Amino acid sequence: MKRKISVLFILAGIAAVAFLGLLYILFGNEFFATDVLASTIQIEGAILSLEMYDTPAERVKGLSRRKYLPADRGVLFVHEEPGMHGYWMKDMRFPVDILWIDADFRVVEVAHNISPDTYPISFRPA
After folding, report:
1. Torsion angle, CA of 113/118/120/121, rounded to 10 degrees?
2. Pairwise CA distance, residues 8 & 88, whole Å
3. In angstroms, what is the C-alpha Rg of the chain?
4. How far does the chain reach from its first CA to its final CA, in angstroms?
5. How confident is the model over 18-62, as pLDDT tens digits?
6. DSSP string, the chain
7. Scanning 7, 23, 44, 101, which has the fewest C-beta atoms within 10 Å of its C-beta?
8. What pLDDT score does 32 carry?
9. CATH for 34-126, among 2.60.40.10, 2.50.20.10, 3.40.50.1980, 2.60.120.1140?
10. Could you count the other beta carbons within 10 Å of the beta carbon of residue 51?
11. What is the pTM (predicted TM-score) of this model?
């Protein structure tokens, strides 16, 4: 009896892994996204919900392989040290606007409609 239960547990585990693998194949990382909306911001009358990427791993991954970003959504890349950090379009699937914001939350530079085709160029403020 215990052997049958063990076999059932193993089969259930294999089925669960296969199911999760199928979801990943069908939907990619969109299904497994753990992005948390951290805040909202208003820029020139537009209100955006923000995802916050504040770890090195999150900043490196960025929006890579995401299929889209809703029009009312933005991403805030938070760095430990202030500076004019560069961003690239590695594994991106859609163009984005990049805004650099200083420590006083002022927009200091904007790069509009950056295409995924620009990789490996890194964009930095002038």
Report:
1. -70
2. 47
3. 20
4. 71
5. 665 555 555 555 544 545 567 888 878 888 888 989 889 999 999
6. -HHHHHHHHHHHHHHHHHHHHHHHHHHGGGTT----EEEEEEETTEEEEEEEE-SHHHHHHTTTT-S---TTEEEEE--SS-S---B--TT--S-EEEEEE-TTS-EEEEEEEE-GGGTT--B---
7. 44
8. 47
9. 2.60.120.1140
10. 19
11. 0.66
Mean pLDDT of the chain: 81
Q: How many CB atoms lie within 10 A of CB 47?
A: 9
Do the Cβ atoms of 79 and 85 come closer than 8 Å?
yes
CA angle 52–27–41, rounded 5-degree value = 25
